[in-house]
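Support request, please re-run this one:
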Amino acid sequence: MPPTLESLGIDKLSIEERLKLIDLIWDSLPQSFEPTEIPEWHIAELEKRRATADTEPGVGKPWQGILADLGGNA
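Re-run finished. Output below.
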């Protein structure tokens, strides 16, 4: 089970301390990353979304439409 904000004490940090922590974590990430396997929870989430898309067609919106709504180019 992954750690939680509470178990790490992050919930007790001030906003400024949390932002500094975000910077530290971001800077610690490698420049490139090649995942070797897809986590099981990603697969479960995709299956859930696909099932919803089949039972509720038209609920979602293609990313191109979202980008266009935000004023970007697709």
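The helical segments are 5-8, 15-28, 40-55, 63-69. The radius of gyration is 18 Å.
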